Amino acid sequence: MMATFVLVHGAFHGGWCYSRVSERLIAFGHTVYAPTLTGLAERAHLATPMVNLSTHIDDVVDVITGEDLNDVILCGHSYAGMVITGVADRIAERIKTLFYLDAAVPTDGKSLFELRGEQATLAALAAAGETGWLVPSLSAQAFGVNPDDAEWVDQNCTPHPIACFIERLRLSGREALVAHRTYVRAERYASPAVGETYDRIKQDPQWRVVALDCGHDVMIDAPEELANLLLQEVER
């Protein structure tokens, strides 16, 4: 059974971060899209103060509808939990699985800043002070990236438009129509907000929940383990 995966990166990253996972999935004959969101990585030249969460939801919806993809296993890392939830609310009929990778799991009317808490909000606002709208990337060390890959991650991460973190996600409830949901927790990443999300979700029998011994950038620290978990979604 061949499947279609759409892998969405988190804040500051780009499609590049999924290269190792994509290679493994493609080797099994599956179709993989790992788009870079507007204003980041090789699309950093498109960054403006107007780039927000809705922009990134549009990015992914356009890939899925433009390529006429169905039964999509849609994976979102970190900030992209906001994105994939918004995508599912728009085109739930095309999504088979929502796969949250150490990610935000938003409810209606919440922004990423509201989910992450006051300290994270203040830190990001302060960091964006020079431009007023671009948040400089966190370091690979802050993400808990393994030492061998830290330089690669630091070289490729780019600033992120702050409007993405401020915009509240408005949901109609259609995202609940997606049949399958999985949450993967990176145990070496200390984040109270992510930890609270994980603790809440693992009590819900509707979710498949997995913990991995790695840093926040699971696709970089544990690509084989992540690829295997994604492949398991094919048979669900």
Summed up, the helix count is: 11
Q: Topology as H/E string?
A: EHEHEHEHHEHHEHEHEHH
Q: Oligomerization state of this entry?
A: single chain
Structural class: alpha/beta
pLDDT averaged residue by residue: 94
The best one-word shape is globular
Q: What is the strand content? A: 15-25%
Q: Percent helix among the residues?
A: 25-40%
Molecular structure report:
With 236 residues, this protein is of the alpha/beta class. The protein has helices at residues 19-27, 53-66, 80-91, 112-116, 118-127, 140-143, 147-156, 163-166, 192-201, 218-221, 223-232; strands at 4-8, 31-33, 72-77, 95-101, 134-135, 160-161, 180-186, 207-212. Strand 3, helix 3 (80-91) and strand 4 form a beta-alpha-beta unit. The mean pLDDT is 94.
Name a few traits of the molecule.
236 residues; alpha/beta; six-stranded parallel beta sheet; two-stranded antiparallel ribbon; 11 helices; 8 strands; 16% strand
SSE order and pairing:
Blueprint: E1 4-8, H1 19-27, E2 31-33, H2 53-66, E3 72-77, H3 80-91, E4 95-101, H4 112-116, H5 118-127, E5 134-135, H6 140-143, H7 147-156, E6 160-161, H8 163-166, E7 180-186, H9 192-201, E8 207-212, H10 218-221, H11 223-232
Parallel strand pairs: 1-2, 1-3, 3-4, 4-7, 7-8
Antiparallel strand pairs: 5-6
Helix pairs in contact: 1-11, 2-3
